[in-house]
Amino acid sequence: MNVSVVGRKKYLTILLSLVGAFCIRLLIPFTSSAFSSTSDQDFSYNTNAPLPTGKGTANATLVFLARNSDLSGVISSMQHLEEKFNKEYGYPWVFLNEEPFSDDFKTAVQKESSAPISFGLIPSEDWYQPDWIDEERATEGRDKMKAANIIYADNVPYRNMCRFNSGFFYKHPLLQPYRYYWRVEPDIKYFCDVTYDPFDYLRDNKKTYGFTISFYEWEKTIPTLWATVKEFMALHPEHIASENAMNYLSDNGGDTYNLCHFWSNFEIADMDFWRSEAYTSFFDFLDSKGGFYYERWGDAPVHSIAAALFLPKSQLHFFRDIGYRHEPFQHCPKGDDWVRGMCTCNSYDTLDYAPQSCISRYEKMFQ
Ligand SMILES: Nc1nc2c(ncn2[C@@H]2O[C@H](COP(=O)(O)OP(=O)(O)O)[C@@H](O)[C@H]2O)c(=O)[nH]1
Ligand SMILES: [Mg+2]
């Protein structure tokens, strides 16, 4: 065999393997599901974490990230959720903070619920800006946002919070024992009695991520997020679910992001999704780009994009019967849901079909 035949054979082999790899690439996207929901077995407790003291039976907790200075808003939110739901179900509360909670905070909070309450300290490495972030570039990014009048433009703690909620809260030792969580923030309102257990609902209906409000993100906070997501999708097509919710995120099959996201100050969801291989590699990839600090990537678009791409759309759930407000938006149920929940909000005062809302896009996927 002369050299040129060996050379040609080599080229042919390389060419064939490239074509092969390309075909596999084409085949894999949208054919596999990264995360499958809930078997009944997984729903039971596997540790001696605090249990619900009421009629709740799910492996679930109410999660509250807060500062000591948030106390009055924390109390108000707890009163809402206890009154409308938890006084009956008794799900344990978990409070997290990067600084120790003060005795005043703990004493005041403990008065608001007869359910177990735990207070956890966030490990510094899960909270603060990592050393490898180029501070000059981060400062430049913040200055640019400030000049553009963007909310929380030059706020580093806010960025810590967004990154923590994106990639760390579910790893905290106090949350490790639990599968499902309900996220609570200061100064939120619940308008209706929650007449069933939403955690049971997720389990029984094989749902993974529940929301109440959905609208558009401020693009200037995430200028390179979608390009980064596309890069990840190309590298990891195996994580993209078949029957995903790409049509909720994009009006052109994924070319550009339409900025729709689920508002993450309300979330009732399955932490095992955040703990999955798909989400872990997604978060690590995003984090490695530094966009939580160079820009201001929010946990809402990060969670939403992941849930919409790595889950079949049937695993998302719009809790349309839960009346909820976080300034400046609210969702108010209507019809039978409003009556059953004895809601105190006005059914017409709801973001659902307002121009800023993405609910129509979400619903269109199921029509
Ligand atoms: N421990 C702690 N919690 C924070 C910090 N910043 C925000 N949070 C919490 O993170 C959540 C979101 O913050 P919030 O100020 O409500 O942001 P917004 O809803 O996006 O305007 C709330 O539960 C806050 O209490 C912080 O620096 N430390
Ligand atoms: Mg808030």
TrEMBL record:
The keyword Ion transport does not apply. It holds the Pfam family Glyco_transf_15. Coiled coil: none annotated. One of its GO terms (molecular function) is alpha-1,2-mannosyltransferase activity. This is Glycosyltransferase family 15 protein. Transmembrane segments: none annotated. Belongs to the glycosyltransferase 15 family. Keywords: Transferase. One of its GO terms (biological process) is cell wall mannoprotein biosynthetic process. GO terms for cellular component: Golgi apparatus; membrane. It comes from Lentinula detonsa. The active site is at 267 (nucleophile).
